[in-house]
């Protein structure tokens, strides 16, 4: 009985975590460059049950042999194994702000191990000097004239330097070159990851390469195609209709496990208060 109690409880916990994930996706449906998270559910390892018994051998001495007939497999619950970001291109919307930029990627080579395509990212510098990655091109100019993100991260050029501009009167070509009065002043830094699933998500649309790995310059990769669109923003790739459907299913699964848990609770209560009563 207690085993079923814990099995239903693990189902509730797993669905609660899935609900939190889906809710976070819905709350970021309008966040530029946001990549939806996906969950992977997995059952705990099955246990093979056997019953302890004995067989009597009809001999003069009445021999008894122990046997363990197989009852069958028993599952002990479910858990959310991992959270996987969905790295697909989001829709591109025009904003007409010169500091807004969107990465529009074409064909990307597939990773030989994962079978998934690579991904490109804007390169940023954290105020503490470390590098970060993002798909959110909602940039602005700070008081010192540096191109930054809304949370104060510096946008880097393809040489790893901060981009400093006198005003927002500049043009960005599709190959990332920033032009002021007909002169190239910088080139927007774009990094390429052949395995974006390995990147570490730090929240707020920021990622970093694991263990200090330096990602290659996307402009130097001959087998990838992309462009930088000025005055546009990449939208979130969250499918709101599907996410709402998944949320409803998660709620129903949670309630189903809750009903089972309540039934076990009533059974235990009856066992303790009635069956075990001595008259």
From TrEMBL:
Record-annotated Flagellar hook protein FlgE/F/G-like D1 domain positions: 118-179
Record domain Flagellar basal-body/hook protein C-terminal: where: 230-272
Location of the protein in the cell: Bacterial flagellum basal body
Keyword NADP: no
Domain Flagellar basal body rod protein N-terminal as annotated: residue spans: 5-35
Keywords recorded for this protein, A-Z: Bacterial flagellum, Cell projection, Cilium, Flagellum
Cross-referenced PANTHER family: FLAGELLAR BASAL-BODY ROD PROTEIN FLGG (PTHR30435:SF19), FLAGELLAR PROTEIN (PTHR30435)
Family named by the database record: Belongs to the flagella basal body rod proteins family.
The name this protein goes by in its record: Flagellar hook-basal body protein
Organism from which the protein derives: Jeotgalibacillus marinus
């Amino acid at each position: 009985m207690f085993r079923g109690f814990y099995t239903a409880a693990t189902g509730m916990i797993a669905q609660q975590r899935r609900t939190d994930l889906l809710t976070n996706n819905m709350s970021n449906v309008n966040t530029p460059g946001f990549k939806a998270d996906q969950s992977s559910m997995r059952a705990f390892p099955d246990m093979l049950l056997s019953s302890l018994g004995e067989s009597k051998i009809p001999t003069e001495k009445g021999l008894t042999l122990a046997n363990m007939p197989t009852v069958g497999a028993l599952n002990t619950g479910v858990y959310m194994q991992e959270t996987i970001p969905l790295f697909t291109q989001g829709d591109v919307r025009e904003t007409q702000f010169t500091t807004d930029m969107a990465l529009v990627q074409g064909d990307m080579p597939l990773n030989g191990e994962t079978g998934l395509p690579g991904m490109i990212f804007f390169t940023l510098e954290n105020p503490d000097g470390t590098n970060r990655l993002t798909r959110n091109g909602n940039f602005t100019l700070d008081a010192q004239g540096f191109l930054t993100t809304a949370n104060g991260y510096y946008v880097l050029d393809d040489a790893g330097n901060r981009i400093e501009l006198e005003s927002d009167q500049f043009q960005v070509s599709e190959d990332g070159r920033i032009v002021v009065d007909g002169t190239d002043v910088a080139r927007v830094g774009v990094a390429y990851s052949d395995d974006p699933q390995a990147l570490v998500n730090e929240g707020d649309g920021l990622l970093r390469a694991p263990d200090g790995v330096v990602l290659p310059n996307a402009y130097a990769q001959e087998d990838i195609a992309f462009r930088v669109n000025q005055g546009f923003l990449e939208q979130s790739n969250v499918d709101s209709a599907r996410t709402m459907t998944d949320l409803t299913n998660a709620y129903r699964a949670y309630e189903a496990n809750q009903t089972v848990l309540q039934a076990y609770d009533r059974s235990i209560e009856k066992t303790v208060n009635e069956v075990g009563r001595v008259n």
